[in-house]
Amino acid sequence: MVARLVLAGVLIVAGLLKIDTPALSVEAVRAYELLPVSLTPVVGYGLPVLEIVVGVFLAAGLLTRTAGVAGALLMFVFVVGIISAWARGLRIDCGCFGTGGVLEAWEEPNYLGTILRDIGLVALGVWVAWFPPGKFALDSALGLTSSRDKDDDEDLDKDEETV
């Protein structure tokens, strides 16, 4: 549950910080120089919405495994984008939490820290996708878990009892 809520919180905060300034989000996407100019507005406007939606699903524990995969994939794409920018010598802010784009001459990028953080978030998404959602997820309350999830939950409960 902790992995799910941490990833959810990061995605929701990141999306909310971008959604009210879509022009800055588009500028951040454009700074990566990876997409055709015609696609940067689509991604710049759509990314905050996607982050919020995936984050809300994770927070609620609804379609938890699918949301975990989506969160992990988002973070993986961010890692690839940041590595690409670093390898090509671009001096940009990732745009992860609102502002982004080309850095001023006196500003230094923090590529390594951002990459390590996002790899950790990929790991959280994989964890959420791999393990059953648990009893504090809407999936469980609505009966949306598979029989495999229920068996895994019982195994985890037995493990906790023996500790």
TrEMBL record:
Stored InterPro entries: Methylamine_util_MauE
Keyword Hydrolase in annotation: no
Keywords, alphabetical: Membrane, Transmembrane, Transmembrane helix
Transmembrane segments: 41-60, 67-87
Keyword RNA-binding: no
Methylamine utilisation protein MauE domain boundaries: 2-131
Subcellular location: Membrane
GO cellular component, one term: membrane
Source domain of life: Bacteria
Signal peptide: none
Membrane-topology annotation of the record: Multi-pass membrane protein
Alphabetical GO biological process terms: methylamine metabolic process
Record's protein name: Methylamine utilisation protein MauE domain-containing protein
Organism in which the protein naturally occurs: Sinosporangium siamense
Taxonomy of the source species: Bacteria, Bacillati, Actinomycetota, Actinomycetes, Streptosporangiales
